[in-house]
Structure formats: C-alpha cells, structure tokens
UniProtKB/TrEMBL annotation:
PANTHER family: MITOCHONDRIAL METAL TRANSPORTER 1-RELATED (PTHR43840:SF15). Residues 213-290 form the Cation efflux protein cytoplasmic domain. Belongs to the cation diffusion facilitator (CDF) transporter (TC 2.A.4) family. Residues 13-207 form the Cation efflux protein transmembrane domain. It comes from Dyadobacter frigoris. The lineage of its organism: Bacteria, Pseudomonadati, Bacteroidota, Cytophagia, Cytophagales. This is Cation transporter. InterPro entries: Cation_efflux (IPR002524), Cation_efflux_CTD (IPR027470), Cation_efflux_CTD_sf (IPR036837), Cation_efflux_TM (IPR058533), Cation_efflux_TMD_sf (IPR027469), CDF_Transporter (IPR050291). GO terms for cellular component: plasma membrane.
Length: 337
C-alpha cells in the first residue's frame, strides 16, 4: 500500500516535471513572437517550475526510502526542504520580474503578434490547471508537502497566466502598452507572496511546529474512540514527515493490570490511531499507572481498587491532551479534591 502510494507520487511529480519543460518552451516561443514583458515574466517563472519539479521528484524519491542508522526517523523531512527551496526560487524570480517590469514602465518597448502569443499561453493555462489540481488533490490525500507545494505552484501559475491573457486583451483593445508592464509588476508581487507562503510552511515543518489541523484530527480520533480504561492521555505530540506520521503520548491505565493486559490496551490504542492514516504511522506510548485522585474522573465499572466515586468527565480536547501533566491534576484543583 505504502510502496504503491510512493510510486504514484513519483509518477505524478515526473509528469509535472516533463509538462513544465514543454510549457516553458511554449511560453518562451510566445515571448519570441510578441516581445511582451508580461509573457517573458510568465516564461521566466516557468523555469522555476522546471527546477522545483525536478527537486520535488528527488525529494519524494528520498522521502520514500526506509529508515536507516543515520536517519532513524526516516527521510520525510526532505519534503519540507523541497517546498522551502521552491519558495525561495519563486521569491528570487519575483524580484527579477518586478525589477524588469519597473524598467519597462520607465522605458516602454513595442509589442507585436499578441493574438498568436496568447494562444500558446492559453494552452499552458489548461495543462497547468489540470496537473496542478491533480497534484494538490493527491498531495493532501498522501500528506505530501512537496506534492502539494508543486501543485499549488502550478495552479498559481495558471491564475497569473489568466491575468496575463486579460492584460493582453486590454492592450489589444486600448493600445496602451504600459498595461503589459503593469501586469508584469502585479505578477511579480503575486509570486513573491506565494513564495513567502511556501518558505513559511517549510520553516514551520523543519522546526517541528504544530500542525493544528493534524493535531485536531488525532485528538478527534482519540476522543471518539475513548475507552473507559483509558484513564488519561497527556503530553501528546504529533508530527508529519512526508507521508509518515509520528505520535508520542502518555497513556494512563489501571495500575493493578498485568503487563500483558496493559500491552494489549496500548496495542489497541495504537491501532485506532493508525486506522485514520494512509501512510506509515509510528507511535510511541508511555504507560502511566493511575493514582487515587484519578477515581474522580474514571468511568471504569466494577473497579476493585476504587477509592472515590466518579464525579465528572474531562474534555479530551487538543488544549488538554498536549499538556505535560495528567488531566486529572488540573481538574482536581478546580474541584478542590
């Protein structure tokens, strides 16, 4: 299952790479026909597509490699680096495009054959939208930042090309050449914003920043499948490296259980979390013994060592489960017990 998913990701990113090379050639041919600065900006940005897709292909290949002695947590973080590399290239390209646009505004140059050039750009829009949508869809399904980033890049390229076509149409209708450079300037600013967003996501991933949506998904899975003998879950940590998911937490179980029974309960807990993830899931659970104060919040029936009656349940939400303390400790203070 995991192997097939990785092969599918590699095929998709390879398709993106080949398509980017062909479409970049079409855009430069359109620039050759028109001498349009806006079309040149679009073509230059497409060079970034080629480089980024090539690096993304390598990163997806590397992230699929098994763990080894030097990389005990796998190679999934390379996808964060790939997205950051792509974002940095986009920002650099946007700066070049903005500078050239300002120069053209100050020193306008004649434009020709806009209709013919627009036809080639329209072809690139259609292809980029189809491939970009597929990459984003598959990237979200497989939790691949490299795949999602490349797909979003192609989609943003399509949007910017649509703006380019509109500017070409306005130039043909009005004859105002300055529109070409203005469109190029807006295109450069749009690219800079998208590049910065990619770099931010990459840095967050490399720094192990919390993915709130992923954390909420894990917490929801725990809460919806909560067992009475799961007395407490705390110190929950969730990290995504490529398509690999890593979860650490502390699980409080009845202190009088034998080791075999505690092991089976932990195995059940791990299987529930793995059911909702398509990639490889690695879970480390530290088992804690329950204490007398847990009785106030424990719903286990017929407990042979219960010392206090059940008082209330505790909300198992993200804010509670990530705390580095047992849930009953904070709840006990509030109840003054």
């Amino acid at each position: 299952m995991q192997i097939n998913q990785n092969k599918r990701k590699q095929r998709l990113i390879l398709l993106s790479f080949v398509a980017s090379i062909i479409l970049t050639g079409l855009k430069f041919f359109a620039y050759y026909l028109t001498d349009s600065n806006a079309i040149l900006s679009d073509a230059l940005e497409s060079i970034i597509n080629v480089i980024a897709s090539g690096f993304a292909f390598y990163s997806i290949y590397l992230s699929a490699q098994p763990k080894d002695r030097n990389h005990p947590y796998g190679h999934g973080k390379i996808e964060f680096f790939s997205a950051g590399f792509e974002g940095a290239l986009i920002v650099i390209a946007s700066l070049f495009i903005i500078i050239e646009a300002v120069k053209r505004i100050m020193e306008p140059a004649p434009i020709q054959n806009l209709a013919q050039g627009a036809i080639f750009i329209i072809i690139t829009i259609i292809v980029n939208m189809l491939i970009g949508y597929k990459l984003v869809e598959e990237g979200k399904k497989s939790n691949s930042l490299a795949l999602t980033a490349d797909g979003q890049h192609l989609l943003s390229d399509s949007v910017s090309s649509v703006v380019l076509i509109i500017s070409v149409g306005l130039i043909m209708l009005t004859g105002q050449i300055w529109i070409d450079s203005a469109a190029s300037l807006l295109f450069g600013l749009f690219l800079a914003y998208n590049g910065f967003q990619l770099v931010s996501k990459s840095v967050a991933g490399l720094m192990d920043a919390t993915d709130e949506s992923l954390l909420e998904k894990i917490v929801q899975s725990i809460s919806e499948n909560k067992k009475d003998h799961w007395v407490d879950v705390h110190n929950l940590r969730v990290q995504q490296y490529g398509s690999d998911l890593h979860i650490d937490c502390h699980l409080t179980l009845p202190y009088y259980w034998e080791l075999q029974k505690a092991h089976e309960a932990i195995h059940e807990f791990e299987n529930i979390l793995k059911e909702n993830h398509t990639g490889e899931t690695e879970i480390f659970v530290h088992a804690d013994p329950c204490l007398p104060k847990c009785c106030y919040f424990c719903k286990m029936n017929n407990c042979p060592v219960r010392q206090y009656d059940f008082v209330q349940d505790i909300d198992w939400d993200a804010a509670n489960l990530v705390k580095n303390q047992k849930l009953y400790e904070d709840a006990s203070l509030k109840l003054n017990v």
